[in-house]
Protein 1
Amino acid sequence: MKFNTDILSLFDKGWALVTAGDLDCFNTMTISWGAMGTLWNKPTCTVYVKPVRYTHEFMDANDYFTVSFFDEKYRDALALLGTKSGRDSDKVEESGLTPVRIGENLVGYVQAAHTLVCRKIYRQDMDTAFMPEAERERHYLTEAPHTMYIGEIIGIG
Ligand SMILES: Cc1cc2nc3c(=O)[nH]c(=O)nc-3n(C[C@H](O)[C@H](O)[C@H](O)COP(=O)(O)O)c2cc1C
């Protein structure tokens, strides 16, 4: 598996969609925090999802998730998917992106430039006791801290 990228700007500048569920029942949201690396000798992709997000339910309920990266021209679609909740509307339909079945029964997007297929191998709720006070105050005064999901990358398309 090869994926050559500028990892420090991939999430931060490029954004991505994290998607969990199958075509009959899935949710997706925009992320700009993430990591790629190695754990337990496996290639991994880590994402951070706040419990308040609808996507969180899907991340917990499913053993797999996908992470999709897009060209700049889809920035508006990603902005929409990162401001609306799948709880309230069919935001994927509104975004104009086309969901597509990936692998066994996962969901990615026809328009994605790259899609990582990830098998969830670890999850942990972040603990505000172990983070800088500035970040605690900036991100978690009113909402519970992110859950970290580490996925083994089992496919790159
Ligand atoms: C550029 C951008 C990056 C974001 N990154 C994250 C992230 O890394 N983690 C997170 O929990 N929320 C992030 N969000 C917020 C969610 O995408 C947003 O709350 C979304 O509406 C949740 O949708 P859902 O309720 O359908 O899951 C980001 C939003 C934007 C616009």
Protein 2
Amino acid sequence: MRAQCLEMSIPNGSTYRIYLSRGLLDGVGEKTASLVAGRKALIVSDANVAPHYLERVCGSFARGGFEVAHEVVAAGEASKCLENASRLWDACARCGLGRDGVVVALGGGVVGDLAGFVAATWLRGVACVQVPTTLLAMVDSSIGGKTALDIDAGKNLVGAFAQPVLVACDFETLATLPEAEWANGFAEIAKSAVIEGGGFYEWLAAHAEGLRGRDYTVVQGAVARSLVFKGRVVAADEREGGVRECLNYGHTFAHALEAAAGLGTVSHGRAVAEGMRFAARLGTEAAGVTESFVAQQAALLDALGLRALDAAWPADELFARMAFDKKARGGMLRFVFATAPGIWQTMTVDADLVKIHLILWEQGVG
Ligand SMILES: NC(=O)c1ccc[n+]([C@@H]2O[C@H](COP(=O)([O-])OP(=O)(O)OC[C@H]3O[C@@H](n4cnc5c(N)ncnc54)[C@H](O)[C@@H]3O)[C@@H](O)[C@H]2O)c1
């Protein structure tokens, strides 16, 4: 595997590097030292990740000349909360982290969103370095600048846009990633390939087995292609006013399913894959999607081990959840449809048609 460095440029002027390699944990501190003026760093991790990697990252920042503090939060979505943000702000205060300091997120998307939010809000914004340790965080949450907390009213409702100053994807960290977490990354990679089309889609169709089998050269290829894709989308539309909506492909259904099934019952990746299948089938009536594309996409998802779900949840409950989703406008439901790899559109769909397809899905014939 060769080391790669991608450059992310946002029209607002921010530019940052995304490093892809093995062994990056030991050099991330030195790399950061050339990007920030201050020498105080707060490293945030979670209880599953910290025992494996925190010491190495702390050592790397110490070698970079930083005075290092660290905080470890509980693993899991519940940690993306105001209480933890408050605890981390207190930690910033204790270690005297000034405007020129840096907050480092070492973990999956939960730590990335939490630490990113704290960096975006401490002293109205300090530098953030993302060190993603899940495949999902590598391909999705560590870049793009969205940070978020969950509150009782819903997931990701409080947040800020703030781009990191550096992202370091160290593939060595994936060695300890639990089996079930890989599917979440696979689904986002499949979504990106379907929306991007062209070379990415063909490459993934040809390398799906290698990715599923954890061939690290293929894993790096998939991460790099996903990042280039997401980088281009975010550069065109940082704040989701237009083209960034394409990243929601499969997600309207997925969010409803995850909520209806109960947190953790259906993984995000399986839910997104099911959402892509649902959007394709709904699209045959709503958006001119062909049966051949429905089958083509299903074959890709199958090859990645993202099989169709064999349990259904009540159509009326899913519909009610979708109607509450932020993408529902004026009694119509808004979906992203792909009609072929690389060709997508957003459309509002009549609620009755969505209900019919949810009933078909529930009956297992959709
Ligand atoms: N900001 C964005 O643009 C964006 C995009 C997508 C998702 N997200 C957010 O990301 C979160 C999901 O991210 P995730 O799937 O990475 O979940 P996560 O951070 O909860 O990580 C999943 C699990 O794997 C463990 N883990 C992580 N890396 C590990 C490693 N290398 N070895 C051993 N265990 C490890 C974690 O402790 C956790 O138990 C959600 O909160 C979602 O809202 C944000």
